[in-house]
Each structure stands twice: as C-alpha cells, then as structure tokens.
Specification:
The complex is a heterodimer of chains A (669) and B (322).
Chain A (H helix, E strand, L loop, with lengths): L5 E6 L3 H4 L4 H11 L5 E7 L5 H14 L3 E6 L2 H14 L7 E5 L1 H5 L5 H21 L6 E4 L4 E4 L3 H12 L4 E4 L14 E2 L4 E2 H14 L3 E4 L2 E9 L2 E8 L14 H5 L3 E4 L7 E4 L1 E2 L11 E2 L5 H5 L4 H5 L12 E7 L1 E4 L3 E3 L16 E3 H8 L20 E8 L14 H16 L2 E6 L9 H11 L2 E4 L2 E5 L11 E7 L4 E7 L1 E6 L1 E3 L3 H8 L26 E3 L9 H21 L1 E4 L4 E3 L9 H5 L5 E4 L4 E4 L9 H5 L5 E3 L4 H11 L13
Parallel strand pairs in A: 1-2, 1-3, 3-4, 6-7, 6-18, 7-10, 18-29, 20-27, 21-22, 21-27, 22-23
Antiparallel strand pairs in A: 5-30, 8-9, 11-12, 12-17, 13-14, 15-16, 19-28, 24-25, 25-26, 31-34, 32-33
Helix pairs in contact in A: 2-6, 3-4, 6-19, 7-8, 7-16, 12-13, 13-14
Chain B lengths: L1 E4 L10 H11 L5 E4 L11 H4 L1 H16 L6 E4 L2 H16 L1 H12 L11 E4 H17 L8 E5 L23 H8 L3 E2 L13 H4 L1 H17 L4 E4 L2 H9 L1 H8 L7 E3 H8 L17 H5 L30
Classes of the chains: A alpha/beta (669), B alpha/beta (322).
C-alpha cells in the first residue's frame, strides 16, 4: 500500500483552544513525530474555519498532493461539514477528512496548559491513525415523492398542510376525530387579543376541506408506516363512519332525529351532550357525521334506525366497514397534539368529588357561545351565576409528583379565564399562581390589564380545595386553602367556583406513535426534535417532522409557527427533487451473519430486516442513519459501519494511546 | 397470617379499647399476632425533634427486638405514630449506611443489631384491607352497620410522608382505604374532606387554644356532614377528639357531641360481636345514641373507684393546695 500523504491542521479558535493548548507545539510535534505515519505537512492557524483557513488546506491538497486531511479544532457537530466541503472544493473526497475535537474535549476542560497540550497531541495522533483507514465515499441520492402526510388536524397540522398545499404540492391529512380543528376549536377566545377562536380557525378549516391539493381523512388513523425519506408507504385506517360521504349532504337531520343523547367526552370535555350520530360542532370539516357505534341504539339493540328513516339522501350505511388505504408519501409531519392532565390524580383539589370544581377545558366549553350553556358562566347546576371564582395555576405542572415541566400556556389561559369571568359575571376572581409567566408579545400587557381589572393575584400553591366550612361565611362555599407566600400567611378563600388550569400532557398513545414512525420521545412523552435550538421541527429520522404540542406544550402562535416551519422544510426538500444522504451507513457481512436477529429490534430507525430465505439480516441503506447501535450489538462482529469500521476505531485508539509513536522522543523541544 | 405486633404505650392505657378490639377481630380475620418482646417507647413525635440519631436508635431497638422473631418478617403497629416511627427508621436505615452504622453501634451495647429493610413495617389498617381483603371481611359481616353515618378519619401519620416508591398503601393526600372498609361493613360513609387533617397532636399540652381549634374543625366538619360518629385508626387522634371534646366545647362555648371509635371496633360490631367485648363504653363522648341506630346496646360503664385499703397511709398534700 502506498503511503498516504496526510496534512494536519491545528486551530487556535482565537484563545478558545490556544489559551490552554500550545498549538504551535502540537503542530510541530505532529509534523515530526507522525512523519512516519504519513504526515507531510502540519500547521496551526488562528481560525481554521475561516475562508483563509480553508484555502490553506486547499492549497496544500494541490501543492503537496495531500491524500488525507486531519483538522484538530471544535466538535464535528459544528464544523465537520465545513472542512469536508473545503476538501471537496480542493479536489479531495470529503470523507477523507477527519475533524478531531481539541476544544470541547480538551482545551475547555483542562485548566493546565501542559496537560492540555499533551492531550491534544494524543487526540491528533488518534485522528491521523483513523484517517488512514477512511475510504472515499459518495453520498447517496434518492428521489423524493412530493406527497406529504400530515398527521393531526389541529392548528399546527392545518397550518403545515396549507403551507405545503399552497406551495403546489399534494398533502394527505389524517385526523382521528370526526372533524379537524383540534383543541383550538373548543376555545371561545384566544389570548391575549381575545379574538374569537372559531372565527379565526374555521376559515382555515374550510380551506383545508376544499383545497384541491389536500386529501383529508377524518375519523381515521395511520395504521402502518414503512420505507424511508422520500419514499414512505403509509397505510391509513379509515374507521367506519356508517355514513356514505358520497350521498351525505351534511344537512344534520340525522342528528336532529337521533333519540340517543350521550355525554361528549371529547369536544365538550364531558360538559355537554351530543347524539349517537354526530358532528362534533356545527362548523365541522368535513361536514359528514359519524355514528358512534358504542352508543348507537341500533348497534346495541338492533332497532331504531331513526337516522336511516329520516335521511333524505339515503346516506346512512350501517354495514360500512373499516377501510384501509395505502399511499406513497415523501415526507411526514406529525402534529398529534396533547391530552389534558387528569385532575382527579390530585384528589385534594376535589375534581370529580366537588361539583363546582372545573377543569380548564370544561371552562373553555362553559364560556363558549356555542357551548352547552351558550356561553353563560354558571355553576354545575346550570343556572347559578358564581359570585366568586378561584383559578388555580400549575395543576399537574411544575410539580414533581406529576409533571416537572411548565405547561407554558396556563398563566395566559388563566388570565383569559379571569377576564371572561369578570366580563360576563362581575364575580370576584382569585388567581392562585406559583410564578406568573407571560413572556411573549402582548402577554405582559394583558397581565397588567387584568391587574387593573381588579383580579386578585395570590402567589402560592394551593394546598387543598374543600367544602368543609371552618368559619362563618364559608358555609356552602368551596374553600381554597393556600399559603400566600408574599406575605407568608395561610389564606382561606371561600368561592363559588374553582377552575383548575390543568397541565398539558403528551398524548396517551405517544409510545405507539413514536414506535410507528420510528422516532423518539422524551421521558415525559414529548416527541424529540433533532436539535432543541437549531433544528426544532426535524427529528432524528430523515423525512419526519414534528409541529405543535406533540413536541412540547406551546400556545397557538408557537404551534402555527412550527407548523409553517415544518412545511418550509418539507417544501425545501421537495424542490430539491432528490435527497442527498450521508453515506455513513452500517452494512452486514452476509458470510459472518448468524441470523440471530439481535440487531433487528435494536435499530431505532427500523432499517434492518431479516431475509427469511437466506436467514441473514440486511441493512436498508436509505433508512440507516449510521448511528452504530447495531455495529456494537452484533455478537458475531458481522456489522461494520462505514467511517466507523472496527479497524478504524482500534487504530484511532492506538493513536490516542500513542502506540504509534513509541520509538519517538516525546519530550518537548 | 402471622405478624409481629407492636402495641405501643397508648394501647396499654388510653387506647386499650383499640387493643382489645384488634385482638377480638384477629381470629375471625385469620390474623395471628406475636407481641414484640420487651419493646420500648417509639419516641412518639417529640424525641425525633430533639435528637435524631438517638431517637432512631431508640426506635431501632424495637426493630431489632422484632427481628428476633423468626416466624414472620411483618411488623404490625396499630398506632399511627408507632407505625410511622418504625417505618421511617427502617427506611432511613436502609437508605443511609452511615445512619445504619451509628445505630448499630448503639444497639451493640445491648447485644442487638438490625439491618434496614429486614422487616416490613405495616399499619393494622393496611394489613386488614390488603392482606385479609374487603371480600373476606364482607363475608363475615352478620350485622351490617346499616343507617349509620360515619366520618372516616385517617389523621396525618398513616400515609404521610411518602417513603420510597412503595412507601404508602394509600393516597397521601386523600386516602380511601378506610372509606371502602366502612362501606363494606354496611355503613353510610361520608366523603369527609378533613379526613387527613391534623388532630392537634400534642398541641393541647403546648398551646391549648391551638389544639382546641384543630379539634373544633374536625368535630364541626363531621357534625356539618351529619355524621353519627367519627371512625379513626390512631390513638392520638382518638384521644384528642374524644377526651378533649368537652374541653374544646367549653373553650368555644359550643355543644358538639361526636363520638369517636376505632375501625377495629366497627369491624367487631359488624361481625356481631358484643359491644363490651370491643371496649365500647370506655370512650368519653358517649357512643350509645349513635350505636342504638344499628341496634347495639352498650352496657352502662361501671365507674371503678378504687377505695384505698384500710392500711393505706394518707397522701401527702402540697403546700399550695391548702
């Protein structure tokens, strides 16, 4: 084998590296001690990532005929791509460039310059040994299907779908409920502007429903996902509506005539009723109702059929069955939303025991002009207007017994509630908060407005809500007991109504969703983004994006922004027509593979499949993300990762331990 | 099932009715109790606040004594304070090797030792509802407590604090096991919002008015809910609510009458046992009216006045009494 000609470049990173590593010494040492290993040029430079620094490498490639490059600078997370591109421009295959970190892993963590310098030498030596094993690679190119799947028809999903559709590309939207709209459709007003939620949402819903580029599946779920970025196959399960949508005109006579009234636990949050055949609300999109087979008298007892009898177009179809449709899609946006914390888990707050304790979603329905009381704020008896209302923040949030995180929207939501109560009932309102968090445009101003409106703010976590009167004046009231931490005193506030601003929680089936789409979720169950700051809507799986509360609690503006951001990413990819994928992949040596299948389930990207007739496993290179999990797990050592082969890693270790330079005098000059 | 049994001081004196009734229901419920040999004070609530290590050593001596019993590793305490102290000490010894070492240094002086986690410390209520079980109890009910409105009262020490992952057998803020038990016995159980509130502990001795206020809240609460009686599981709670109810009434110029009985007594009554055999009649706030609702006759308690023997010498009189 002809000896490689290696160039070594040590970055000062201003004083970030040069402050604790003698960069000139490392450069000198590498040039001398690693000469036998093929190092022909070794330099140090103030900022290797600058244009001048990159040109330095390119010049050497041309003039010195370099065949390998090692850059010792920051973490590969930051500048690997920069130096690979620089090498490519200089005429060298980009995968023959190795970036080793002497900043995060060396200069930043060692206060002692002598120690830092010696460690930097070892790291450079490791890089040199590894780069010898690197092979020239070509990036993979796969064509991209322009169809995009959007899962979830709340405001985040709606925004994403419309952005993609308006850019001229086809969208398939899947919504679990009979109508799109999500939680936003349940609200009366939105903070801080107090504009009517339905008024701003329904035009968007209508647009989705009628957009020529959007194919909408409501009352449907994604049943299966396979394939990889640009080329996913998704199977959608359309649950039986029992209504023929080709015939149905959405006239609503079936709902009117249906004799079975049931509590609506979803849209009305359990505070109102719907029929067994229903659309959740009048502006539902699509307009077609569904029959709730669990409650429909016909499905329970075999008689009734009132809806069928009265339907003017004969659209009721009791024999409809679940249908499955398979589509090829290029990319997927998940906007699956959130569930409300079950306030019964905090029994001392009395929800479920004490009639006039409401959850935030219940109050949204109570205050909604289209809600069960027509927007009248009344107690659970349906008639009495409360004279005093307590709003409890952080119920199930910021509490290590339930959820440690802040639900982000509850402070503003509680302020909105306080305002609505004031406006419509004139009642005294007490807000019990831990900290007021109003950090967005117009939010703090809204808080000030509430202060001026005369809402009482009590800083303290509520200990309990009880109906046990202790003092005169408390009889027949709900008593909120809390410590007012600003004055250090216990308080008992008797009120007529309590609203619990309950936490936003991940969807109950988050595990199922994460497994289905091959992405990961946090300990709590929020879907994890690729980078919390710089890549908030992509996931670690290429081609799958997240938006809205599926990623974490957030308000409407933030959900919309994420929906649009995810759409922008999707459209950008579609316009490239094909996707360039990193060629860093695992591959399985078919002769060594014993067919044990350990790697099959280990792969977080579902990239490994078992080939039954040959009894071996195989990696799909388009799905593989090069994480290396299978490489480490394979008991037969049959899997190797490009760029991270066993030989390369062992050589790098040898280099780090300076086994390669044993014969050389290591004492600094 | 066999258990080591730690009665604690109150069950020998003021809460003797609790002890008597617990023993009476043991057999029908298939529980066998072996009293811990030569047990000592659990430290109650006071000693822990004075000297932590010494108080844990005091408690650990009981654990060490109980661990000598080889036939069972379950230690049952009917008193909530004893239960909490024993449980805390056991849990902290298991958690902290340094505490365990110090305590064992002290125990070694008496030739004893204890390793945290050896015993499983249980409250009597836990054993009754979880080991015996509601179904087995229901099967033995011959005189359902029908028509009796009861307020289940847990006090603070039985489910708090939450020690470790499986530290409590019921919700720390709003327990429900006693509620279910009393329902099984046939009583009408009120959803008592004060069920885990403070009974005043030893406040009656330190700050009378504070103690009386805490007692008043509970008695008033139960009265407001039209309870016939309060059912409890802690001798301290029973003592405060029962023995200090009269003093509380005169302090606030009120006229509450709320009998306070133990859950073991209620089980015994539902099993058709004789009231006197369950220690009923020894409570200070008369439960006769309440119990007559379920047809239980309570014999007039005999006032035992011990006459000094003829040979007895006169008691000394202190100067200020003159």
């Amino acid at each position: 084998m002809e000896k490689e000609r290696i160039g070594v470049y040590i970055c000062h990173c201003g004083s970030n590296i040069a402050g604790t590593v003698d960069v000139a010494e490392v450069s000198r040492w590498a040039g001398e001690a690693l000469k036998d290993r093929g190092v022909v040029v070794s330099r140090d430079y103030k900022f290797m990532c600058s244009s001048l620094g990159q040109e330095l490498i390119q010049k050497d490639i041309k003039e010195q005929g370099l065949t390998r490059v090692v850059v010792a600078a920051c973490s590969p997370h930051l500048h690997e791509q920069t130096f690979r591109n620089a090498c490519k421009e200089g005429g060298l295959n980009p995968y023959l460039c190795e970036l080793v970190s002497i900043r995060e892993q060396c200069s930043w963590i060692h206060p002692d310059k002598a120690v830092g310098t010696e460690k930097a030498k070892a790291i450079v030596s490791g890089g040199v040994e590894k780069v010898i094993w690197d092979e020239p690679l070509e990036p993979l190119r796969v064509p991209i299907n322009p169809v995009t799947l959007v899962v979830g028809g709340g405001i985040a999903g709606i925004q994403a779908a419309l952005e993609v559709a308006n850019a001229g590309y086809p969208v398939i939207m899947v919504e679990r409920e009979p109508s799109i709209g999500g939680h936003m459709a349940q609200f009366d007003k939105t903070f801080p502007t107090l504009d009517c939620s339905a008024c701003i949402l329904t035009p968007r819903m209508v647009e989705v429903g009628s957009h020529p580029n959007v194919k909408l599946f409501s009352y449907a779920e994604v049943a299966n996902v396979s394939g990889y970025v640009g080329n996913f196959q998704v199977t959608i399960k359309q649950k039986a509506r029992s209504v023929n949508t080709d015939l149905c005109t959405g006239c609503g006579i079936c709902q009117e005539k249906c004799p079975k009234k049931v509590i609506d636990p979803v849209f009305e949050a359990g505070l109102g009723y719907r029929k067994a055949v229903y659309t959740p609300f009048p502006q539902a999109v699509p307009k077609y109702p569904v029959i709730d087979r669990e409650n429909c008298t016909y499905f329970l007892k075999g008689t009734c059929k009132a809806c069928e009898k009265f339907c003017p177009t004969g659209a009721i179809d009791f024999n409809q069955e679940d249908e499955y449709f398979t589509f090829d899609v290029g990319q997927i946006i998940l906007a699956t939303g959130w569930d409300l914390f079950d306030a019964r888990r905090i029994p001392q707050y009395g929800y479920g025991r004490l009639a006039n304790v409401f959850t935030s979603l219940e109050f949204e329905r109570l205050s909604n002009a289209a809600g069960p009381t027509g927007g009248k704020i009344v107690l659970r008896d349906g008639v009495t207007v409360p004279k005093s209302v307590a709003i409890i923040h952080c119920v199930g949030s910021r509490d290590k017994n339930y959820n440690p995180y802040c639900s982000a929207i509850c402070c503003m939501q509680s302020l909105k509630f306080a305002h609505l109560v004031h406006e419509r009932t004139g009642a005294e309102v007490y807000n019990f908060y831990i900290d007021m968090r109003t950090p967005a445009k117009g939010y703090e101003e809204f808080y000030q407005r509430l202060l001026e409106e005369g809402t009482h703010f009590i800083r303290g976590k509520v200990a309990e809500i009880t109906d046990a009167a202790r003092y005169p004046g408390e009889e027949g009231k709900l008593i909120v007991q809390a410590e007012n931490t600003l004055i250090g005193k216990q308080m008992r506030v008797p009120v007529d109504m309590v609203i619990l601003s309950a936490a936003l929680e991940p969807r109950h089936d988050f595990k199922e969703v994460a497994r289905l789409f091959g992405i990961s979720c946090s300990e709590e169950g929020w879907l994890i983004e690729r980078h919390p700051k710089l890549d908030p809507v992509a996931t670690m799986t290429e081609g799958i994006y997240i938006a809205g509360c599926a990623q974490g609690p957030k308000d409407i503006p933030a959900s919309v922004a994420q929906g649009a951001a995810a759409a922008a990413r999707v459209v950008g990819k579609i316009q490239q027509k094909e996707i360039t994928m990193e060629p860093i992949r695992a591959s399985i040596d078919q002769d060594k593979c014993s067919g044990c299948r350990i790697c099959n389930n280990m792969c977080p990207f579902n990239a490994i499949s078992f080939i039954e007739d040959r009894m071996v496993s195989e990696v799909n290179p388009a799905l593989c993300q090069g994480c290396g999990t299978c490489v480490a797990a394979c008991p037969a050592g049959a899997i190797s990762g490009t760029v991270f082969s066993d030989q390369a890693i062992l050589a790098q270790l040898d280099g780090l331990l300076l086994n390669n330079v044993k014969a050389i005098d290591l004492t600094p000059a | 099932m066999k258990y080591s049994y730690f009665p604690g001081c109150s069950l020998e004196r003021n809460a003797s009715a609790y002890h008597v009734s617990a023993m009476a229901i043991a057999e029908p419920l298939g529980m066998e109790f072996v009293e811990v040999e030569d047990w000592n004070c659990c430290g109650a609530t006071e000693y822990v606040s004075l000297n932590l290590t010494a108080s844990y050593a005091l408690i650990a001596r009981n654990l060490a004594q109980a661990a000598k019993e080889t036939s069972t590793k379950q230690l049952v305490a009917p008193c909530s304070a004893c239960y909490l102290n024993l449980k805390k000490c056991d849990a902290y010894m298991e958690e902290s090797p340094s505490l365990e070492e110090k305590i064992n240094l002290a125990l070694a002086a008496g030739g004893l030792s204890y390793k945290g986690g050896t015993l499983k410390v249980r409250h009597l209520l836990d054993v009754v509802v979880n080991d015996v079980g509601y179904d087995a109890i229901a099967a033995k009910v011959t005189r359902p407590l029908k028509g009796l409105r009861v307020a289940p009262y847990y006090g603070c020490m039985i489910v708090r604090p939450k020690l470790g992952e499986n530290g409590t057998f019921d919700n720390p803020e709003y327990p429900t096991t006693l509620d279910k038990l009393l329902k099984v016995l046939g009583a009408t159980v009120i959803d008592f919002p004060l069920k885990a509130h403070c009974c005043g502990g030893h406040m009656t001795q330190i700050s009378e008015s504070t103690g009386f206020e805490l007692i008043r809240r509970l008695i008033k609460g139960a009265t407001d809910y039209k309870a016939d009686l309060i059912v409890t599981l802690c001798p301290m709670c029973q003592l405060n609510l029962d023995a200090f109810q009269g003093a509380m009434n005169s302090h606030f110029n009120t006229n509450y009458h709320m009998p306070v009985l133990y859950f073991t007594q209620m089980i015994g009554l539902a099993f058709g046992m004789d009231a006197a055999s369950l220690g009923i009649g020894t409570e200070l706030v008369d439960a006769r009216d309440a119990l007559s609702k379920i047809g239980v006759e309570v014999p007039e308690a005999e006032l035992v006045v011990k006459k000094p023997p003829k040979e007895a010498l006169p008691m000394p009189s202190l100067p200020e009494e003159k």
